Amino acid sequence: MSYDRRKVLQLCGGAALAISASPRAFLAESSVQGFGVANSGGRLAFAHYMTGQGTRGPRQSKADWTRDINDAISMGIDGWQLNFGHYRGRMKSNVETFIDALDELSDPASTFWFFPSFDCNDGRVPVYDEVEEWFAEYYFHPRHFRVNGLPLLTVWQGRSVGNDYFLELKEKLRRAGRPIAFIPWLATRANKQQMAWLFRQWSSMDGFAPWVPGLRVEDAIRMNFIAAELCDRHGLELIAGQGFNMLQINKAPRYVNKNAAEAVSKQMEPFVHGHLPNCRYLCVATWNDFGEDHHITPYPPWGPIGGKHPVWSHVGYATVVKYYLDWWKAGRQPSLDEDLVIIFHMTQLANEGKPPFPLESYGPDMAEDIVYLTTILREPGQVYVGSGGLPRVVFDAPSGISHWRAPAAPGLQVYGLERGGVTVIEQTSDRAIQSPPLEPWSWSHYSEVASAS
């Protein structure tokens, strides 16, 4: 279905928009009437979405997409950056089914956004005909995210393709009557000199978007600050990055241990405390990249993938991310109507099992036998955890959000919350730490959330 001007009017409930024949004129008129998120002034959080993989399977039904969209909204996500290697076949079909599901949903999905990310990894080059087809279909879709009033195109690892290619691509689309905004995800380091060079060389870009899940926490924070400074200097839009642990199993022996939800707090503190005041948009990596272990979908994952490693639920990460997204968007710390105790732990000991690569080749970090707890409390209380046969460890937790660590041991993980000598939460983790491991090797952290109103 092509989203022409008439379809836009239908989706907007017949709103009286006088849409001219020119896309630029249409966008100018629509921005005056509040059509399009780019003119709303609000803060938005997107999540990187693996379109070919899906969350519930590689060929999701419309009902699957509907549940996926509602899950994202419930976790504070305002839209998806739809990543794909090419826009044809299954990738295109998945997008079409997603759009069908989105079009049928009412509030709050009426403000759920999307935009494409052509993946340039492994030498891929976005085919112009496929990019043109995307915008022929969705240029006027009311939920297509816009920057400076223009539908947004992003790419992943565009440096291998080069600035000139995207200058020409943008010019072809402009001549076809579909001018766009372009923000590439340029794989780089948190190095100001290198990033400044990219800003000078990439005249095609209308903004910059750091990619941070594979970086240590300090580097992720530094990259956002450098990108914000350079975007302010050059008058470009920033889509800041947020990402936590990274465990590559099938591609390379890479492991970045960001200490469970501690990394979420460290990365989000500059946003919620106003240190990046001009940042309106944030992209979380990722919604459903199970292969690199930085997914936040609350849906129970498939795991194990091809027998390589188990893929555990990251609902704990999603819950903490949502807490900070709500804080950042509202400009104030969220009020709480329940107590939350969140546990993160591996399902094996760090030095056991048979990894797909030699253990010593993993880096930059090594896993540790630690149970991580995060508390989000209405009032202070005593949080505790007993790992396996180890004695219970008790912490005095304040109100708000805080993080705790305890030694991990094989067996059941019992945790909870007491207040004034009264048990508020008592829970046993659904996954034990096994020694020797019963599942294929993994340093992935299983997580779950216990709550009490």
Keywords:
453 residues, 10 helices, 25% strand, nine-stranded mixed β-sheet, alpha/beta, four-stranded antiparallel β-sheet, globular
Protein described:
There is one protein chain. By secondary structure, this protein is an alpha/beta fold. Helix content is 28%, strand content 25%. It contains ten helices and 20 strands. The protein has helices at residues 5-11, 23-32, 62-74, 89-104, 128-138, 163-175, 192-201, 217-234, 262-272, 315-330, and strands at residues 44-50, 79-84, 113-119, 146-147, 150-156, 181-185, 207-208, 237-243, 246-248, 254-256, 281-285, 339-345, 363-364, 370-377, 381-387, 393-397, 400-407, 413-419, 422-428, 446-452. The strands form four sheets. Strands 1, 2, 3, 4, 5, 6, 7, 8 and 11 form a nine-stranded mixed beta sheet that branches. A four-stranded antiparallel beta sheet has the order 17-14-12-20, with helices on one face. It has a four-stranded antiparallel beta sheet with strand order 16-15-18-19, with no helix packed on it. Strand 2 (79-84), helix 4 (89-104) and strand 3 form a beta-alpha-beta unit. Helix 3 crosses helix 4, helix 7 (192-201) packs parallel to helix 8 (217-234) and helix 9 (262-272) runs parallel beside helix 10. The longest helix has 18 residues, at 217-234. Residues 8-39 have low confidence and may be disordered.
Walk me through the topology.
Elements: H1 5-11, H2 23-32, E1 44-50, H3 62-74, E2 79-84, H4 89-104, E3 113-119, H5 128-138, E4 146-147, E5 150-156, H6 163-175, E6 181-185, H7 192-201, E7 207-208, H8 217-234, E8 237-243, E9 246-248, E10 254-256, H9 262-272, E11 281-285, H10 315-330, E12 339-345, E13 363-364, E14 370-377, E15 381-387, E16 393-397, E17 400-407, E18 413-419, E19 422-428, E20 446-452
Parallel strand pairs: 1-2, 1-11, 2-3, 3-5, 5-6, 7-8, 8-11, 10-13
Antiparallel strand pairs: 4-5, 9-10, 12-14, 12-20, 14-17, 15-16, 15-18, 18-19
Helix pairs in contact: 3-4, 7-8, 8-9, 9-10
